[in-house]
């Protein structure tokens, strides 16, 4: 099967590379020549564990190609995947301008029947619209089928998820197109669920909205636990053992970030609003998350009179570990406020500092290691649960900080262990140790 993938962001590049790994010949198309040149050498423009190696292997074995030329990319393709971004508009809706451009490009370049697959997360009904755009701009008399094939990959674990996901969803309006996708995906060995196009589009939003709901729910439970002297980890554990609830995605923290949950929850509220349905529950989830991103600041305000000229060490900037992605990270909100309040911020992240520099206030100081961030700091904030931080010996905080006051937004340390050290430790939904 010859496949073209348009867009080489997280979704497109991982999808294209993994499809080549299972034996398909894949050409990835991107408009950025510099990026394409790098990818041809097997260098991924994003940090994703295992991706570079897999790209290099499949480039070497002549199954994975990169081009800026739509004509080359689409020429001879049996299947074209759309994997361009759908960023958030000001009103929370999904911006479909990149998708529209790709649909037009497909229409002008294809010379044979193709199946167009939408990987990008798009509002319900978009695939019908994509089909219309393509039909309206077709240059040659060919047949185009549309299939919705949403992705469920987690950044930082995307390669693992591609080969070990829970399900592959295929939404099509005819059996033949669904079967093409079925055959493409069969080698992954993952259970395949076939449905209609609109249900497939809805599954993606509903799944992300539900996961976001789980997180906001446990975060509210965590806030209550703090007030009633309960331990949110034990509560989550006890709840999660009920198989109807499930134990995953019940880690309390400083809210969800990233390119998906914040955008998709708001888009689903919009989608519902467009059909005059008030998705009140999901609005609450979004509100709770916004408050949760700032919760460490209120804990700090309870502890310190002010932050003026205080040295604050920030450990972790990325929205979660194993990624360099800063999109919607809680660190953005927290650091902005600390700087407004006069704090001197010293930040360290194992991989996200490059991206952080592009968006955070220029007053932020970046350090080459955890220890330099901690040196003489008045407080340390743990914002991302990188293993590098979880593996720290708490004596390092004692050794380097003026007085070791730690605000752990990700519950990286076991309270029983913390008690053995001379540190002041505030975490999420658990008793503070002073
Ligand atoms: C999420 C979904 O997990 C994927 O299934 C989906 O494909 C993807 O969005 C997408 O729509 O493309 P991702 O955003 O990469 O993946 O990251 P997650 O691992 O889901 O984490 C999202 C956020 O939730 C992170 O900020 C994380 O710290 C937070 N989180 C997660 C918690 O606060 N608690 C938890 O228990 C789990």
Automatic annotation (TrEMBL):
Species of the source: Metabacillus indicus (Bacillus indicus)
Organism phylogeny: Bacteria, Bacillati, Bacillota, Bacilli, Bacillales
Annotated protein name in UniProt: UDP-glucose 6-dehydrogenase
Residues engaged in binding substrate: 152-155, 204, 249-253, 257, 320
Residues in UDP-glucose/GDP-mannose dehydrogenase C-terminal domain copies: 313-415
Catalytic activity: UDP-alpha-D-glucose + 2 NAD(+) + H2O = UDP-alpha-D-glucuronate + 2 NADH + 3 H(+)
InterPro entries the UniProt entry points to: 6-PGluconate_DH-like_C_sf, NAD(P)-bd_dom_sf, UDP-Glc/GDP-Man, UDP-Glc/GDP-Man_DH_C, UDP-Glc/GDP-Man_DH_C_sf, UDP-Glc/GDP-Man_DH_dimer, UDP-Glc/GDP-Man_DH_N, UDPglc_DH_bac
The entry's keywords: NAD, Oxidoreductase
Family: Belongs to the UDP-glucose/GDP-mannose dehydrogenase family.
GO MF entries: NAD binding; UDP-glucose 6-dehydrogenase activity
Pfam family, one: UDPG_MGDP_dh_C
Entry function: Catalyzes the conversion of UDP-glucose into UDP-glucuronate, one of the precursors of teichuronic acid.
Documented EC number(s): 1.1.1.22
One of the protein's GO biological processes: polysaccharide biosynthetic process
Enzyme class: oxidoreductase
